[in-house]
Design a protein that fits this description.
The complex is a heterodimer of chains A (227) and B (437). Chain A is α/β, with parallel strands linked by helices. Chain A is built from eight helices and twelve strands. In chain A, 38% of the residues are buried. Helices cover 43% and strands 23% of the residues of chain A. The longest helix of chain A is centred in the last third of the chain and has 18 residues. Chain B is an alpha+beta fold and 437 residues long. Chain B is built from eight helices and twelve strands. The radius of gyration of chain B is 48 Å and the shape is rod-shaped. Classes of the chains: A alpha/beta (227), B alpha+beta (437). At the A-B interface, helix 1 and helix 8 of A face helix 3, helix 4, helix 5 and helix 6 of B.
Chain lengths: 227, 437
């Protein structure tokens, strides 16, 4: 998939770009609105990551322009926090999602994937983990044909780890994904540990779950053995 | 006591005092005036009689028989004249009040006694006038005056009261403007319409002061907002860079842990900046208050969120929700944060086997009272007084907090006009009380 990163902060653009490249995206970067506008006119992008705070261009105008050329393009708006108005306007204008700075790179990836799944109507793909099967679209977990009863948070946590399999996710990344970040100050690493503990208890009641690993001092990881 | 009542009372009292003085001295004055009037009349009568005697001689006035004295009363015993012989050489000229018994009736008379010598004989002439009538007239006058005074006092009291009420109205409007605001931001700066110079000055100086305070608040917020905003980009760069290193696979576990630790530190910085930004945004009213929902809904949600953690720490959460009224025109996610912060704070400061109690009820003024209490380690007086201040409330327990959570709670409460207070005792636990609207 082709991604255009429109971000005036060069070092941030570089980090996002190297991350997405590693995730097998074809990435281009524009540091100014004009540059972005030129690129959009010539190339077809699947995704545009757009920082609304461009010095030379109104980011929202850029969305309008791009939609004219390529109505299929998906937009994820990146903005400094607090621009609630911008969020609403952006979504009105056909942006597909919105991410506040500073965000986790894995969160960005999962947003891109979620938009892609929505857009391309990916059939319910099951993910096999040992004796467990995760059904992504119907949001259910099965073990040897029997449903495993999880709370919404436990399932969200599991799914996030599964979709980012073979990557270590820190407690903060997990926390932000599940709770968003309005409760920033109340961030408590115990939250994640408690939920993982409960999740493990439920999993182990059905079958062993060695694929859900604790990486000491770092976080948690789901290993599928694919990498 | 309100100013208009004070003024009215003072007015009333001073009028009553004047009236009382008047009523006290009036009988004396009228008596005096009456007597003088009567004395003049008596002297006139005396002169009349003397001129009659000099015209016709004394004989017609003296009755031939008896004690040779002349006395004449008019039928109503109003007046009398008498002429008697007196010892030679008697000289008398006086006016007195005398009590006379006439036909079994005691009557006070003002009596003029005058000695005159005619043809070598000495007589005493007495002219008298009853005081009963004039006294009666005096009393009547006083009654009329009392009635008049009562009417005057009532009428002027009512009109005074109305006048001060109207005059003071702008003053009350100014105080009402000040009473109804929780911060200079919602001060109504429309000028008050009044012809009283002093109130106009007062109003304009208060308004001016408020504008200046508002301005400096605004500036402070803007600075906080801009600084926080500007910090986001470098934070974002650092975070992405560290995450990238971690994700690209670090071979050395020790380095991996160090990078994770750096990310945690960065997270604290991020959450601090976010909290400051949140407060600045609430204070500059960037949040809408458009949600309405029953209070139990949000409390259930909070208890649901906190349950796994409480169970893990063997802390019991009990609730007694007696008032499930609908909160109107609030910001749901802010109200959630406000209450969640408090519950989470309780959780952090309560040991294993502790208890957190969430209670709602309505008070006598039909306000919603929401309390969140725990039997945790509590706080001393100084900690309680610093509880809602930014950075003063360093979390005593966990390294995760930035010490700003309760300040956020307070800011959100202020934004919604919710009163918040804390009661705590070391070793006994803490109770946070919210009073809604």
């Amino acid at each position: 998939m082709n991604v255009l990163i429109v971000e005036d902060e060069k070092s941030l653009a570089k980090e996002i770009s190297s991350f997405l490249t590693r995730e097998n995206f074809l990435v281009e970067v524009a540091h100014t609105g004009r540059e972005a506008s030129e690129k959009i006119a010539v190339n077809l992008y699947d995704f545009v990551l757009l920082d609304l705070g461009l010095p030379d261009y109104n980011g929202l105008d850029l969305i309008k322009e791009a939609k004219k050329v390529n109505p299929e393009a998906s937009f994820i708006i990146i903005t400094a926090r607090g621009a609630v108005e911008d969020k609403v306007k952006g979504l009105d204008l056909g942006a597909d999602d919105y991410l506040a700075k500073p965000f986790a790179l894995v969160e960005l990836l999962s947003r891109i994937n979620a938009v892609a799944r929505r857009k391309f109507k990916v059939p319910d793909n099951d993910i096999q983990l040992g004796e467990f099967t995760v059904k992504i679209n119907s949001r259910r977990l099965f073990c040897k044909g029997a449903g495993v009863d999880l709370t919404k948070k436990e399932f969200d946590l599991l799914l996030y780890l599964v979709l980012n399999h073979d990557k270590v996710l820190t407690r903060q990344q997990l926390y932000e994904h599940i709770w968003g970040n309005i409760l920033d100050d109340q961030y408590d690493s115990n939250f994640i540990d408690v939920h993982i503990k409960n999740l493990r208890k439920k999993l182990n009641a059905h079958a062993p779950s060695p694929w859900l690993e604790t990486v000491r001092g770092v976080g948690y990881r789901v290993t599928t053995g694919e990498n | 006591m309100r100013l208009k009542v004070k003024l009215a009372l003072f007015n009333l009292l001073s009028k009553l005092a004047v009236a009382a003085l008047l009523l006290l001295f009036m009988p004396l004055i009228t008596e005096r005036l009456n007597l003088r009037q009567i004395d003049n009349e008596l002297v006139e009568k005396r002169e009349e009689i003397i001129s009659m005697i000099s015209r016709v001689g004394i004989e017609p006035f003296l009755e031939p028989e008896a004690d040779s004295s002349f006395g004449s009363y008019n039928i109503l015993k109003e007046e009398f004249i008498s002429l008697e012989y007196a010892a030679p050489g008697t000289e008398i000229n006086q006016i007195n009040v005398e009590r006379r018994l006439i036909d079994d009736e005691i009557i006070d008379y003002r009596v003029l006694s005058y000695s005159l010598t005619i043809d070598g004989k000495t007589y005493i002439l007495e002219v008298g006038k009853s005081l009963a009538r004039v006294r009666q007239t005096g009393r009547n006058i006083i009654n009329i005056v009392v009635l008049f005074l009562v009417i005057v006092i009532v009428v002027t009291f009512v009109s005074d009261y109305q006048f001060t009420r109207l005059t003071l109205k702008p003053l009350y409007r100014i105080t009402a403007k000040l009473e109804n605001i929780s911060s200079p931001d919602n001060f109504d700066s429309t000028r008050i319409n009044t012809s009283t110079y002093d109130f106009r000055e007062l109003d304009s100086s208060i308004t001016g002061l408020m504008e200046r305070i508002k301005g400096s608040f605004e500036k402070e917020r803007e600075i906080t907002y801009n600084i926080s905003h500007e910090l986001m980009t470098p934070l974002s760069v650092l975070r992405s860079r560290l995450e990238n290193i971690l994700l690209s696979g670090v071979k050395d576990p020790e380095t991996e842990i160090k990078i994770t630790e750096s990310l945690k530190t960065l997270q604290r910085l991020q959450s601090l900046v976010n909290s400051l930004l949140l407060i600045a945004r609430i204070e500059s009213r960037q949040f809408l208050k458009e949600d309405s929902f029953p209070v139990n809904e949000i409390l259930d949600q909070i208890m649901e969120e906190i349950k796994p953690l409480a169970e893990d720490r063997k802390i019991e959460i009990e609730s007694s929700l007696k008032d499930n009224r609908t909160l109107e025109r609030v910001n749901r996610s802010l109200i959630f944060s406000m209450l969640y912060n408090v519950v989470n704070n309780s959780l952090k400061n309560t040991g294993e086997g502790g208890k957190i109690r969430i209670e709602t009820m309505s008070d006598s003024q039909n306000r919603l009272i929401l309390t969140i209490s725990d039997n945790g380690k509590g706080m001393d007086r100084e900690q309680v007084s610093n509880l809602f201040m930014r950075f003063r409330n360093r979390n005593r327990n966990s390294g995760d907090g930035t010490g700003i959570g309760m300040a956020i709670t307070k800011t959100i409460a202020d934004f919604h006009n919710i009163q918040i207070s804390a009661e705590s005792e070391p070793g006994r636990g803490t109770k946070i009380i919210f009073i809604f609207f």
